[in-house]
Every structure is written in C-alpha cells, then in structure tokens.
Specification:
Number of strands of chain B: 0
Radius of gyration of chain B: 20 Å
Order of helices and strands of chain A: EEEHEEEHHHEHEHEEHEHEEHEH
Helix content of chain A: 25-40%
Structural class of chain A: alpha/beta
Number of helices of chain A: 10
Number of helices of chain B: 12
Largest interface: A-B, 32 and 26 residues
Largest sheet of chain A: 6 strands, mixed
Radius of gyration of chain A: 23 Å
Number of domains of chain B: 1
CATH architecture of the largest domain in chain A: 3-Layer(aba) Sandwich
Number of domains of chain A: 2
CATH superfamily of the largest domain in chain A: P-loop containing nucleotide triphosphate hydrolases
Oligomer: heterodimer
Chain lengths: ~325, ~260
Amino acid sequence: MVVDETPIVSIENLVKDFRPGFGLRRKRVLDGISFEVRRGEVFGFIGPNGAGKTTTLKVLMGLIRPTSGGARILGHDISEVGFRRHVGFLPEGPYFYDFLTGRETLDFYSRLCAVPKPERGRRVEELLHKVGLEDAADLRLRAYSKGMLQRVGIAQTLVHDPEIVFLDEPMSGLDPVGRKEIRDLIAGLHSGGKTVFMNTHILSDVELICDRIAIIANGRIVHEADAAALHAATGGEVDISVIGLDVGIAEGLERDFDVQMEGRGERIEIRLASKHVDEVIGRIVGGGGHIRAVAQVGGGLEDLFIETIGANRQQAAR
Amino acid sequence: MSKRLSVIAVLAGHTLRDAIRNKVLYVLLMFALLMIGMGMLLATLSYVERDRILQDVALSSIRLFGAAIAIFIGVGLVHREIDRRTIFTILSKPVSRADFLVGKYLGLVATLWLMLAAMSIGFVGVSLVADAPIGPSTFAALGAVGLELAVLVAIATLFSCFATPFLAGCYSLGFYLIGHITRDLRAIGEASDSEMMRTATAWLHRILPDLESFNWTIEAVHQLPISTSEFAWAAVMGVAWCVAFLTVASLVFERRDLR
C-alpha cells in the first residue's frame, strides 16, 4: 500500500485541561501536541499509561472538547458531525448493548451511519464473515468472550466503510491468538487502502504493523518517526542464521558491512547492524545461501521507547 | 434533515427496546396495577360515592406511579450510557449530541406511554367491573397524564446531563413537587400584603412548569366536560415545556466532556 503524503489527520497545538474535582487546580493532560497522519498509513500512537493517548483520541472523536488548539480530520474541523460518516472508532475495552445479538448490533450501528437499506444486510454479513463471527451472529453479546467483543468492536468500526479508523488499544487484554487475528485485520485494512490510527503500548505489534509512530509522554509528543527512520534510530542488531553460504560472499560481507560470523556446523550465525539487513540478505540469497532465521537483538522500539520516556521523566523532574 | 430524523428514530426504537427489558419497570407497573385494584377495596369501605373513591384512588395511583417510572428511567438516561461506555461508539458516528438526547428521550416517552396504556387498561377494566362511569373526560385525563409524564421525563433528562442519578432523582422530584404547588403559591402570594411576595410567587408560577394544569382527576371522576381548546392548550404547554427542557439539556450536554 502506497502512503499518500497528504495529511488525513492534522492536530495543531492541542491543549486539554481537566479539573480533577470542584475547587481543585486544573491538570494539563495534553500540552500543545501537534502532529499529522498521512493518508493510507498505519500510525502508531504510543506512550505509557496516563500519557494522554486516549484523551487525544476522545478529543478527535468529539467526545472531549479541547481547551485550546484544534484538529482536522479529512479536512473537517473535529467539532463537525457529518464527516464522521467516513470515520470509524473502536474505544478501549468496548462495551455494547448486551441484549442485542452480534448481527443486531452491527445493524444498529449501520442504521446510525445511514447505510442505505439494500447495502445494510450485505455489509453486516460481510463483516460478520470478515471478523469470524458468523457462527455467533445470533447469540446475545452477553454470551460473547472478550476477544469476540473486540471483534464486534472492529466490525462496528467498519460497518459504514470509513476512510480512516481510530483504534484505542485494539489488542489490550487479548490472548496471543486474538492479538494475531486483530493484527491481521489491521494489516488487511491497510492493504485495502484504509488509514489506521492506533493507540497502543504493545510495542511488538507497533513494530510489526505501523508505518509511522509518535510517542507521547506527559501530554507532549516526545518522538516522531517513520518505520525506516525508526529502524535506523534504534541502532539495534540483527542475527541471521544461514546455511550454504559461499566463502567469497562471507568474506565480502565481513569486509563491507563489518559483520560478525560464527560457524555452527553447516549453519553460520551472522550478527550485523540492523540498518544493513536488507543488503546483507540480498547478497546471501543472491549468492545461493539459504536463510533459516532472522532475529532482532536488542535495540528496537522497546529500547527507543524506554530511552525516550526515561529522558522525558528526567527532564520533568528537573 | 431526513438523515437526522432517521437517526433519532433509530435511537428512540433502540431505547424503547432497552427500557422494556428493565425488570424494575415491571415491578413498578405491578404495584401501580395493584393500587388501581386497591381502589375497589377502598371503595367498599364507603357507603357513598364509591365510584368517585375508586376512580380517584386509581387515577392518583396512575399519576404517582407514572411519575415514579418517569423519574426512574429519565435520571439514568445519560449516566447509564456513560457508565456502560456505550455512548462512545454512538457519538463517534455521525450522531450529534442533541440528536442523541432527543432520540433517547423519545424512546423513554414511548416506554412511559406504553406503561400508561397498560395502567389505563387496568383503570378502565376496574371501572367497568365496578360500573363506574367512563367517558371522554376519563380519556382526556389519562391523555393529560401522558403529557405530564413527557414533561417530567424531559426534566429528568436535563438533570441527567450533569448530575449523578441520585442527585438527578432528587432534583426531578423537587421539580415535580414544586410543579404541583406553583398555583397554590401564586394564590398565597396574591393574598399577601407584600408586593415582593406577590411578584416572587407570580414569577415562580411563570418560570416553573405548572404540572397541575395536567391534573384533570376531578373532571374525570365527576365526568365534567373538558373542552377541546382546554386540552389543546395543555398539549401546547406540555410540548413547549418539553422543548424548553430538552433545549437546555442539549446545551448542557454539548459542553460536557465524556471521559
């Protein structure tokens, strides 16, 4: 999927203050955040608990009014209502009317989005199939597991075929199988041309599916990067396990990329800087070698995240 | 415009469906029907005007239990949706907050009118069994109860936009009680020597809804005629109060952060 440079979401100097209780001092939750999301990308909005991720999403969805600053989605001010016909939203730990069945729930949301009647039934059935709930479609939601509710949540997000979807902690509380399913759904949305804005703190998922990230801490954006820059910035290393590596190719790799090699019988373990991984793999495969495994060693988004948040905390403490 | 009306209709239908699953409503309805039946028992204690006692008790029961149900379902209208977090997925769709409130409100009014219909059937049944008179005034009085309940649930909706269900219930009950004595307050004020008292009670009567204007129990019990213009005026007043309360409720709800 090619990412268009046009911003589909632009947030400018967004500030939100909350009053914790009557007569108490206001607390600043969002402190002048600004960033953009481009059309067609999967954007990961990450940060520790209480950093302001959910508040940002709720402001974008018009559930919380900004104290100052503003945002535009698809060129519309977020205070407008009509453009939400092109926007999908999955809140964290979504709750639905448990007296409705899965099918009735999707029908209800499609009616709210004014999906034309002839299209409604087809769209509901299509989504039930897409999220794997056809067999449970006529069960009341009170009988659904957490993973099934999350899938209903994803389906209601898509029921009106939006251009952009906002997902708040879509993998939260799911088992590994459930996480994989949701991840695959998001990848499917991406390849189908949708823009995805995802709040999460599961960094391994972000690494796997996001094109770009922004890190928020204490209500401020402290880091923004796209996937390529992220890999370069993280400075981690990669282990590649190879069999059938030609000696000439091995020498060339040692000379050109400063790799470390260790032979284990027929298998050779190569450690290299992650920024060279594409070129090295190209040479190995081109030279007739067979790659058996590729694994990240240290570095990665987790290190960047901890480093960035740590630096921000130290700065805040000063 | 048609899209907005369709959203309001979807929300109203959904609210009605949700509300009629509430078991507490059926308990209240059962009590109301029991009290209507009790009218027959109380009537036997008197040698005179048995019909009047029967219908007086039954109509008062309908009004009181109707008010209790209206306050009970109205005060949780917004709070319950926020508490269950169901409001997030609804308001992130092309649904304005005002349309959300109006849709939910109409759903609750439909619920109340269904309950009122059930109580009215009980009332007519008991009256027929006791051979008490039933006429146009009876139905006009029951219609007026429907209007009063619509106003009351609009009041409860307003308070539900910013208060907890308990506080919203207290405020709504206060409005209900004051709404039934504003006429008496004005009469007391008019009899007073103090100009300030006269002005204050007159303004109270103007500002607060006069819920006694929907009380036609006496006319129904004695089968006194109620003119069409009288009923139309009460209906206009009722609708105006509903619109006023819902407008203020929308303004309050529009400013609220849904955290």
